[in-house]
Amino acid sequence: MKKYLFSIGIAFAAPALWAFSLANLTQTLQKPANVQGAFTQQRYLKSLSKPMTTQGKFVLIPKKGLLWQMEKPFATTLRVRADGIMQWTGSAWANPNASKLGQNRQIQLFLDLLGGNTQGLEKQFDLALSGTEQQWTLQLTPKTAITRQIFTRIGISGDTVVRKIQLDEKQGDRTVMQFEQIQTGKPLGEFAKSAL
């Protein structure tokens, strides 16, 4: 009898475990009006024995843009939106990479990664989602010629927000971004409002 009840319990629980889909993930990550917190980014280069580490704060408005305020090792503020990457000069926004080719593709990838736009990611990667809404992992395997030239894989993990992104590059370098002290739906500061 216990085995029978256990089997019934598993049968009822299993659909709930399997039900977390890419559509659910997108909905979860795009639910908050905004996401604010701190980041630590470590860049591991084959040519260096220690990672290059940067730290700072960020503000993300899903489907709209990202304010990336690096504080260490030096201060710089970037705004990432669909119309490009801009750097704050202290009095105005300027485009530091106006002449770089492929910038729009990189911008869109970064916004898709943080904002949970799985439809945008599926255009360039095969996606494999595992876990539940409380603890999930999304593995991205490049499927286009352009993404295969740059990445071997991308891993994203989180819960109601993205907590970690790891970019493994073809030449052996990797970047790990950790997001902490996260708050959702908190009123934006004046600078973030005007930037985004």
Automatic annotation (TrEMBL):
CDD domains: LolA. Keywords: Signal. InterPro entries: LolA/LolB/LppX, OM_lipoprot_carrier_LolA-like. Pfam families: LolA_3. The keyword Signal applies. This is Outer membrane lipoprotein carrier protein LolA. It comes from Kingella oralis ATCC 51147. Residues 1-19 form the signal peptide.
